[in-house]
UniProtKB/TrEMBL annotation:
Keywords: Cell cycle, Cell division, Cyclin. The lineage of its organism: Eukaryota, Viridiplantae, Streptophyta, Embryophyta, Tracheophyta. It comes from Gossypium lobatum. This is Cyclin-like domain-containing protein. It holds the Pfam family Cyclin_C. PROSITE patterns: CYCLINS. Residues 94-182 form the Cyclin-like domain.
């Protein structure tokens, strides 16, 4: 692992603001088994934040209204492909997932970190990203997401302990964090696909037993992790990805009643999304 000196760190931060010669991607990675090996801190019935159905319904409406304002800029998918950033993004998201798992951070933290990463990349005016730049951005995204989500924070050294080729000084990471915060306009309370799972399952899928409910949540989480690794699913609204993941999991776990559950769930979201849900569900199956 290479380490940046103070002078190198200053130059690195200046270069991050400028056009550079960018990383070339070897191609689109295989995502089929990536999400199967991670265990997350999640929630159970005792951990639910919303105590009444009315609270959940109101929160769901708010999420649906604001989800588009927390999505990457239009044309992001084309940008990733045209700049050969598909594999670079995959590797960054994979590192975020592995590091959150290693440090026992919540699954919400990794979804926020990936959201910050995608939004920042989509706003970038640069012509490409060198490998060290993506690593620095990934560390900054996870650091900010942890500060926003977690009660016990890992140190910057702990974040960089594994799976990075560069080691950045705290001052460099902090400068990147400030640049990231300014680009995101300090809007960190992102609506992600994970934001919808508690809202839907706690009040609209409440007629299954505890163990089955727990398995449903775990399976949906695995599907959502698979989804954030797949760059082709980035343009879908978070609600579409969430419902698609629930659809796949319900169909497998409760085949006799999944249609009834799905009907209730589909009524909760924008009816214009039904075609997108069908396409997304096929991708996640």
């Amino acid at each position: 692992m290479s380490s940046f000196s103070k002078s190198e760190s200053r130059i690195a931060m200046e270069n991050l603001l400028c056009d550079e010669v960018w990383l070339s991607s070897p191609g689109t990675p295989d995502l089929s088994h990536e999400s199967e090996h991670y265990i997350w801190k999640g929630y159970g019935y005792a951990d639910l934040f919303y105590t009444t159905k009315e609270d959940s319904e109101q929160a769901l409406v708010i999420c649906l209204k604001k989800e588009f304002s927390y999505m990457p800029e239009a044309g992001y998918l084309d940008y990733l492909q045209s700049k050969n950033l598909v594999f670079a993004r995959f590797r960054a998201v994979q590192w975020l997932i592995k590091t959150c798992t290693r440090l026992n951070l919540s699954i919400g933290t990794v979804f926020n970190a990936v959201n910050y990463l995608d939004r920042f990349l989509s706003m970038s005016q640069c012509h490409g990203w060198k490998h060290w730049m993506m690593e620095l951005l990934s560390v900054a995204c996870l650091s900010i997401a942890a500060k926003f989500n977690e009660t016990s924070l890992p140190s910057l050294d702990e974040l960089q302990m594994e799976d990075l080729e560069h080691c950045f000084q705290p001052s460099t990471i902090q400068q990147m964090e400030l640049m990231l915060l300014q680009a995101l306009k300090w809007r960190l309370g992102s609506t992600t696909s994970y934001s919808y799972i508690e809202l839907i399952t706690s009040n609209y899928i409440c007629d299954i037993n505890y163990n089955l409910h727990k398995e449903l949540i775990n399976q949906v989480n695995r599907a959502l992790v698979k989804a954030i690794l797949d760059f082709e699913l980035v343009p879908y609204p978070p609600s579409v990805v969430a419902v698609s993941a629930l659809w796949c999991s319900l169909e497998e776990l409760v085949p006799s009643s999944y249609n009834a559950h799905l009907t209730k769930i589909l009524k909760l979201i924008n009816q214009d999304h039904e075609v997108k849900i069908l396409k997304c569900q096929v991708s996640l199956s």
